[in-house]
Specification:
Elements (H helix, E strand, L loop, with lengths): L9 H8 L24 E11 L10 H19 L2 E11 L4 H17 L3 E9 L3 E11 L14 E5 L4 H9 L7 H12 L5 H6 L4 E6 L4 H12 L2 E5 L7 H4 L5 H9 L6 E5 L4 H11 L3 E8 L4 E4 L20
Parallel strand pairs: 2-3, 7-10
Antiparallel strand pairs: 1-4, 2-4, 5-8, 5-9, 6-8, 7-9
Helix pairs in contact: 2-3, 4-5, 4-9
Bound molecules: adenosine-5'-diphosphate and magnesium ion.
Length: 326
Amino acid sequence: MTTPRNTTSEFELIARHFMRPATNAVLGVGDDCALLNVTNGMDLAVSTDTMVSGTHFFPEVDPEHLGHKSLAVNLSDMAAMGAMPYWATLALTLPSVDHSWLGAFAKGFFDLAEEFNVSLVGGDTTRGPLSLTVTIMGEVPAGAALRRSGAKAGNDIWVSGHLGDAALAVAHRKGKVKLDPDDVDDALMRLYEPTPRVQLGQALRGLATAAIDISDGLLADLGHICRLSGVGGTVELERIPISSFAAKHVETAEGLTAIVSGGDDYELCFTANPNSRESIDDLQNMLGVPLRRIGQIRRGKGVSLLGPDGKAVKVDGRGYDHFSAP
Ligand code: ADP
Ligand code: MG
């Protein structure tokens, strides 16, 4: 690969910031490949997410937050499949070598990696406009992964946590929404340091009939479950869990859009048979993660959103799509 023209060699950069013992791998960073031992009876779960400066994050964002988020969004994909994350690779494209930036980025990345016992086992480092690609690998018992395609008419629709905070933070940064000064830090933390629901995803194996993580907005992501399951869904607006500061904005068009189609929540949306309600309620106490029933899967197509009067609510925007016309 290309060596950034700088006094620090690429090897030194990797050794200084990204070489840590890979406790759960046969061989980690340093050779041509990492070597991983996959457990018998498990399926290997693999997912990749790229974050591009200016598209996925503000260029001046704190690198420690960026390190956290680049791994968190991948852990969230593992969560959505009910998989146990073990290994990650990191492809970094950097405009220049800035050791204090890299140190902070690595801290954010490895703090979260340690929390979830994930080892960084390899990657690539190139010069160019700032972009970060993480590939995550993990295991899920063969045949037990939570897919998007299993929802059935009559299933409940559930979401974890609360929705809209991250999108409200973005709208605030862009001047489209004015958050109370007391709420700004909380909203920004939800944008910069999302909590991937990894334990929840694993606990939902055998309970959820379908699952997805909410990265592009509730309506868009639930729409994926519906499309792939060949069903429709109805969501009741007043059941959607929101934080106290999001509640202040639900009456405005921008606030409503942030909550139902804003994205960047990294909460789980899943479907389950109504006879699983008690088990799912038990889970929220066990894991300390709020879980809320927000609607029902039905025969048909598409996702409808109902207001308190039972009438359909129209929302601007149907989730983020990189290639749709503006
Ligand atoms: P090659 O030229 O064979 O692709 P590289 O010089 O790109 O090897 O990488 C050397 C080693 O460092 C490999 O084990 C690779 O996986 C690892 N590596 C490179 N960049 C990173 C990074 N940003 N984070 C973690 N490991 C990295
Ligand atoms: Mg390489």
